[in-house]
Structure formats: structure tokens, C-alpha cells
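Complex record, two chains
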Amino acid sequence: METLGFLMEGFAVALTPYNLMFALFGAFVGTLIGCLPGLGPANGVAILIPLAFTLGLPPETAMILLTAVYAGAMYGGRISSILLNIPGDEPAMMTCLDGYPMAQKGRAADALAVSAIASFAGGLIGTIGLIMLAPVLAKFALTFGPAEYFALFLLAFATLGGITGKNPMKTVVAATLGIMISTVGIDISTGTQRYTFGVLELYEGIDFILAIVGLFAISELLFFVEHRMGGGREKMTVGKLSLSLKELVTTIPTQLRGGVLGFISGVLPGAGASLGSFISYTLEKQVVGRRGKFGEGDIRGVVAPEAGNNGASSGALVPMLTLGVPGSGTTAVLLAMLISLNITPGPLMFTQNADIVWGVIAALLIGNVLLLVLNIPLVGFFVKLLSVPPMYLLPIVTMVAFVGIYSISHSTFDLYFMVAFGVAGYFLRKLEIPLVPIILGLLLGPEMEKNLGHAMVLSDGDWSILWASPLAMGLWIVAGLGLVLPYLIGPLLRRRMNAAMKESPVSD
Amino acid sequence: MTGFGDRILGLGLLVLAVAYGWAAQQWPEPFGGAESVGPETFPTILSVVLVAGSLYLMIKPDPDAQWPVGKSALELVISVMVLVIYALLLEPLGFIIATTLAVGTLSWRMGAAPKRAFLTGLISAVVVFVLFNYGLSLSLPLGVLEVN
């Protein structure tokens, strides 16, 4: 039981008072980020990166903080789904279907409590899966050569849009743009200046933290301005908890199914948390059959998607930690933090930075417990915050982003750059060019080029090495499928998801 | 005409891709002679991919998005200008004044009553300033408020 030993060491790291404090803080802030309108998990984690930096946190603490935020955001997403029928983030969409009807029937408190428990169960199952799967996958990944890595990066880009993605070609364009931005600066291997135009600030390349914060935070502000969604929402009353223990016990099988399904879809490239919660919900509907009242406030209809999306969020950490290839926007932002801490993500991390990896995993377990404890008593507080109108909130969030970026370098040049990225992000989002592949391109571009170079040196300039091994070939094929499948089965899946949304009588 | 947005984007990206690829061919050969993978290899591949992508966008564009016109467009321009001016004035005016103005203007333009908007700006500015300077000991510029 080598793994168990590592996990114990991880707990030793995560349970130090200093790290525990940051985990608690992260869990709290994460829930806030998840439930507030206009602050998705990726966005929230991105804004916190510069802060983690300027505080000079040690790497394991910084990662624990951000992982706790990540887990918290998944918890928080459900609050506005249930109370307002507005999903806080995309994976929480399915929670609206039965959560909101429950709230309308005066069982908001029950829905919130049971979804917190389901989130906990899903997160726990996902984390256990992560503990079992990650070391195995990391060992396997050690056999990867540069050619396999190159193919793996391609696969990551190709599947990033997800099977439900709209236009895979736009994902390709976005990823290429991101990689292009990453080539700006002095070439590491030869020292050639690339696309610097003699501007001193560009010699070191474009800082991806700037780009991430600009693309996410500033473009979000602009979207709110455009739609004039500044007004507040009506106040919601939560009511009293009337959930019985018996009712809770009956949902346990649902929690298990949801968590496992969510974890699997989190690990698989191209699936992600949204699909995880969707699959959990539809499967649950089929298992329960006519006995359930899905869409009218069935408690299992709240449990299944919540367990699913939290299982998926832990599952999504598997490829990020073991291969250095994130499968979602938020894990991409976590990867950005790792890279800027000078940690090379990938299989070697499990041996070279074991304390960080296992500290993070242990923090995820502790975070889940903290979140459960935090969420049940504090739910009233989070609900109150939900009624803070975005017209006050978003300017303040933007200001915090400015402060974060400014405090890294104390240079106003960076701020202009960030605003420019924000404006670009606004236009790209308008044109339905996804932003996450741009970020991933920025992060993985240098690694991709390095691996291409290594592969070429090994093969003495023979390009066929890139698909020579069966493993590399397999990765190329999956990458190709990732681009083609959305055309074939994407419309079908999307139609079903929409149909599921329309079936529920209350959604409008 | 539908798909206008994607066509213009495609055209812009095509120009970018060609310029990017062309620039890559202009770099001097690195010291020590050319290898199979030089600094220009990867950018060249990228520019080819982007050329293909941009052509696709122009040939098969998606339906157009709803672009803001009139007042919303003006509000957007104002917001971006506020952000640029905020960056410009952050150091000379100091964090507290610049932030009060920026956050205040933004929330006012987003629909808050002016008084409450600027009050929100002032409070958030002071809170963040105190938190950063004393709590986290990261210095933010005080600007004109500085007393020696």
C-alpha cells in the first residue's frame, strides 16, 4: 500500500494549521464564487492566482488554496440553480430541473441540504477514484516519449470542445491562436527573438496570467454591461429544514451512481462535468422509472446531477495531475498556477513533487468535509450574497483583478495588456470562439514545441516518428475522433439536453 | 447576409496567419547551423493550421451573433475607456482615488444610483487598500494622498 503511505504524508502536509487555514478560506471563497452570478469557477480561480503569487505562498499552500476554491465553486453552483432557476455554472444546469420545483414547493432548505450532501458524496467518490487511478496513470505516462506527448497535447486540444461542442473548427482556431501567443518572446532553445518587435516587455513572452485574467474577468464585465444585467434579483426565502433521515438514506444509491458516473466522465477527455451531471440525471430517471416525479421536484433529481458534477470535478484532476493535460477550463487555470510555480506537471510530478500532489489530494478530501460543514449552516449567508446586484459586484471584482495583476509586477503596461485581452475576449466570445482552448494553447504551446523538437532530434529529422509508435498512433486517432464526433453525434446529444430542459414545466 | 461576423473574423485571421508565417521565415539562421527543427518550424506549422481554419470560417460561417448597437455599444466603449483610464491614473492619482472613480463610474453606468455607486467605490477602495498595505504588506500607490 504505497499509495496509502503517500496519502498519509499528504495529510501531514494538508493538516498543518497554516495550510488548513488556506483550505478553509479557499472553500469559503470558492462557494462564494460558485454561487455569485457572473463569476464562473475558472474566472474565480484565475483572479486568485495573482493574489496567491503576491502573497508569496509556498507552492503546496498555493495549490491547496486553489484546489479548495475549485471544489468550493462546484458546491456553490447549485445554490442559484435551486433558488433562482439560474445555474451558477454550466454543470449546475441539470440541478435546476428538480431543484427549482422543490424550492417552489417550499422545500428550498431541503434541496440545499440534500444537494450539499450529494456534492460531498460525489466529491468523495471522485477523490477516492483519483487516489486509485492517478498513480497508475502516472506510472503508465512515464513510458511516453516526446512523440507521444506531442500527440497527447493534440488530443487535449481536439477533445476540449467536448462532444457537445458546437463547432470543432472554432476550437482549432482558438487553440492555434493561443499557441501563437505563446511563441512570442525569446526562443528557449536558440535564443532567436520571435515576434517581439523590439518591445522590451515582450522579450520574456506574454504572461499567461495576464491573458487569463483579462480574457475571463474583463470580458465578463463587458458582457454584463452589454446585457444591462446590473439589477438585483428578488430575495428568496429558504425556509425550514424538513428533510428526514429516512429520505436521505433512500438517496444513497443515487449518490453512489451519480458520483461514479461523474468521475468517469470527468476523467475521459471531451466529456467534462456538464456531461457528467447530464448522464447521472438521465440514468437516474431511467433507473427510477415511473415511480419518480422527475421535473416536479423529485429529491433524487437534485442528488444525481450534484453527485455527478462533483465527481466529475475530481475526475478532471486526474489527467491534469498525471499527464499535465487539463480537460476543462478550471483545471487549465490550475495548471497555469502549477507552471508559474515552476513545477512541471506530468508523471514526474508524482515522484519529484510528491508532497504537492498528495498534499493537494488530501486537501481535496479535507476540503470536501470543510465544505459540507460550511455549507449547511452558512447557506443563509450565501443566499443573502446572491441578492447583491451585479452592478456593484462586477466592478469590484474587476478592481480586484486589476490589483492582483498590478501587484505582481507593479507595471501599468501589464494592465493595458490585460484590458486588451479583455476586449479581445469579448469579441471572441461574441463570435463563439471558445476561450479555454486559447488559455490551454498559451500554457501547452511551449511544451508542445519542446516535445516536437526532442522528437525530431531523436529521429534525426524524420517526421514520421510523430505517429510511429502504436500508442502515438492511437492518440492521433482519438484526437481525430474528438474533432469528428461532435459533427456526428453532437447535435443529437445537444437536442436531448435541451429536450430534458424543456420537459420540466417550470423552466422558462 | 448571414455569417458576416465569421467571414470578417476569418479574413482577419487569414491576414494574421500569413503575416505570422511570413515573419517566421525572416529570422536569421541560429548560431551553430540549421537543424531539422529551428525556431521557425513550429510557427510555420501553426500558420498553416490557422490559414486552413480561417478559410473554413470564411467558407462555412456560423450564423451571426446579435451585435450591440446604439446605446449598448456606447456603454461598452465607455466601460473599456474607464478601464484604460483607470490603468493610466492608478499611479499618478493613487489607488484610492483612481479606484473610487473607476468602480463608481462602472457601477453607475451599470445602473446604480450615482451616490451609492461612488460610495461603493470608495468603500471597496479603502477596504482593499488597507487589506493590501497593512494586512498583506503589499504596497499599492497612494499617489496624491501621500503626505511626507
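Note: Chain A has 21 helices and two strands.
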